[in-house]
Design goal:
mainly beta, 2 domains, two-stranded antiparallel ribbon, 3 helices, binds zinc ion
Length: about 180
Amino acid sequence: MATTQNLPSLQQRLLPQLAELGSSAHVSGIWPLETYYLGAIRFTIQDVVAYDLHLSNTGGGILLSGTVSADVQTECARCLEPAQLTIEAEVEGYYLINPSYEELDLADDEFVLVDDSGEVDLAPALLAAIIFETPQVVLCDQECRGLCPSCGVNLNEQQCDCRQEVSPGNPFSVLKDLDIG
Ligand SMILES: [Zn+2]
Ligand SMILES: [Zn+2]
């Protein structure tokens, strides 16, 4: 799972407001997340994460659904220059109230228990949604030519003379062949 230090909380009161079967609530706002990681890759939120969520009591628990969106900046996987992307993610979560022992035997990563405070932190569900929608490889441009594997110049900005000198054993030489065209 991703690094979660400095994850700003997003406390939401569920009880007693949503204690009745069929009761629901709509919550929207901004979540002040600044950065997150996918593996070792850092993503910086450009402004804020906006959320638009629906909470509804389905009987044994409260179902969370809705969307989060954010403009995000990271490093281009090829040239390491800034690359932008817009994340639009579907949020889902399930907050169990008055659980039976049978329900507690279910996989415990599929729900969160609502404790006596009646509040839950929606932040982990929002982060999970954002990470799920974040691509493994982000490029500044689909046509990005990347860095020369020999001399390191940014091939989007300048040419170099070492294209013929790449040894056949260099794994980048294979990538370069694939990029032709
Ligand atoms: Zn690039
Ligand atoms: Zn070069």
